[in-house]
Please model this.
Amino acid sequence: MTADLPYAELHLHVEGTLEPELVMALARRNGVALPYRDTDELRRAYAFGDLQSFLDLYYATMSVLREPQDFADMTRAYLERAARAGVRHAEIMFDPQAHVSRGVPLETVVDGIWSVLATSERDHGVTTLLVAAFLRDRDEDEALDVLDRLLAAGAPIVGIGLDSAEVGHPPSKFARLFERARSAGLRRIAHAGEEGPPEYVAEALDVLGAERIDHGIRCLEDDALVARLVAEQTPLTVCPLSNVALRAVPSLEEHPVLVMLERGLNVSVHSDDPAYFGGYLDDTLHALEGALGLTSEQRVALAENSVRSSFLPPERRDALLAEIRAASR
Ligand code: HPA
Ligand code: ZN
Model:
């Protein structure tokens, strides 16, 4: 009954949608040598011990992305799959520094992705917004330079995010970056409390002015922080398959997402890097039904939270919420 509820995908790295088949096809097209003979061998490398072991592979496979067409093909493949999963709106992150640092021009990246997002509603029935994510394990000056270049080029981004290796790279390292984004009228999101401590979640809110927290699951270690997040209804975009794949949580059966929902936190579930972590939004929801007994009421709450936590203009947000209410009656 609730399988076709509208949903907003809010935590999605477009480079994390690069399926092994596309990695191999782009490697051939661009003459890029990879240390994997075929998709099976590449897939066998998808056994992660932690966030860093995933990031090493994630950045390595990106080497196949060279031309605008490559970025467009990746983005189109994601939107086709997301539409089948019930996604009606997607706020899509990309990692500009991961490409410019290996010599791919910023315009190649932005133009390639945008060539598909610009017509996503017409072509796939999915409205989209683009978010530039910055790599917290690199220095702030580089991030500021890339943000300035994006702004100078009039890149069609709605906001910025903060991702990559979390521990040892606290949000406060990027205070100037987020201030510049704020003054440019951009929305602000940060990964926090995935592998990093609850203090990073508070810092992302207090120092960066983050409006949405990606992951945030470690907030549960601090009751005062939970109380604050409940009171402020801070959106937390939780990615259960990612957390299990990267061993932030031992198993899906032990995942706290429904506990978070019951405690009144504004959580929704998302797919993070679906090509690497075992599935898209529909796969995630099915897995939660199986492992945690997700009820249709909880399913509706996740859908509503996802739409409410989006950066959609009020008319589209309210229309999607009305659709959810009608479908769940
Ligand atoms: N965490 C941090 N950085 C990332 C992730 C993630 O799950 N995916 C892509 N970059
Ligand atoms: Zn993420």
In short: The pocket of zinc ion (ligand 2) is lined by residues 11, 13, 163, 191, 214, 272 (CB under 6 Å). The CA atoms of residues 124 and 227 lie 39 Å apart. The two ends are 10 Å apart (CA to CA). The mean pLDDT is 97.
